[in-house]
Write a structure and sequence with these properties.
Elements lengths: L5 H22 L8 H20 L4 H20 L3 H30 L3 H6 L1 H34 L1
Keywords: Membrane, Transmembrane, Transmembrane helix
Length: about 160
């Protein structure tokens, strides 16, 4: 049982969920700029689900698989693309997030001399160290949207 405070939900889990959905829909070339509220709503719902998932006692691997499937479900609701494709997109985004988290943790351990357990138990530090991953996920989504937007406008011309 993991008792996370609401501050982690509000400042880390929900923003991370919104960023993951944004990047996943961007990977699928789904233009939803005029429907940003959908990203927010589904991101909050995914964040609440992940928050709940982290409070029950299940092994980390099972947690990850359930999280990927729930992310794929939200992506499916937004894009209406094949669920298999949505699982692939959710998996790609999850792998990107895991890589980014590993990089930040390695930097925190090697550069700042912090222990992993200290980071996990210090919620303000955990939120601060989680911010770069969230920003990078959003940035990757923006870049993909710009690339796909150029391709869309070039096809129209």
């Amino acid at each position: 049982m993991n008792n996370l405070p609401l501050v982690v939900l509000i400042f880390q889990i929900i923003p991370e969920s919104i960023a993951m959905i944004f990047l996943a829909t961007s990977i699928l070339n789904n233009w939803i700029a005029e429907k940003k509220y959908i990203l927010f709503i589904f991101g909050v719902l995914e964040g609440l689900f992940i928050f709940f998932l982290k409070t029950i006692s299940i092994s980390f691997g099972v947690h990850t698989i359930i999280a990927i499937f729930s992310l794929a479900l939200w992506i499916y609701f937004i894009t209406k693309k094949s669920f298999t494709i949505c699982i692939l997109s959710a998996s790609i985004v999850s792998i990107i997030l895991m890589i980014l988290e590993l990089i930040v943790v390695e930097i925190s351990i090697n550069f700042f001399g912090l222990e992993v357990q200290y980071i996990l138990n210090n919620y303000p530090l955990r939120i601060i160290l989680g911010s770069p991953q969230i920003l990078i996920l959003f940035l990757l989504g923006v870049i993909l949207n710009k690339i796909f937007w150029k391709k869309r406008t070039n096809k129209l011309n």
